[in-house]
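Structure ticket #2291
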Amino acid sequence: MSDPPPQYMTPQGYEALQREIVELDAERKRVVQGVADAAAEGDRSENAEYIYGKKRLREVDRRMRFVARAIDAAVVVDPREDRGERVFFGATVVLEDEEGTTFTYQLVGEHETDAKRGRISYRSPVGRALIKRSLDDEVVVKTPRGERVLTIVEVRYG
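Resolution: structure written out below.
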């Protein structure tokens, strides 16, 4: 099996995944104890606490594997490192559409996206269109509503 592709993320995103794995480990210990207590009560086939506990344990284990793989594949990139007027991971980019409306996005890792805060994945359609482009470049982005032409009016790091 080949190694997963690197997953770029900010230091904050990496720390959040590490916190999540610690929280999941603590939850797993509680769930295992709950399942053991429920199993000790006897008939497991009609024991809702046992059945639910086993289901929750599978969910926690699945999430722990997912987060552990993300941590293993992580390449931490500090968005404060200035890379000039070219767009790379971590950049905050101000875009303007044909109507003069501006949008501000920061390119972050897949596990850090938050559209309401303008944090989009560098692997998203907009993110891919922006990577390695420069100030004043026009980019064409395919959206569900059709193609949009956006102009890069500002690139900043930090």
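Closing remark: The chain has a mean pLDDT of 92.
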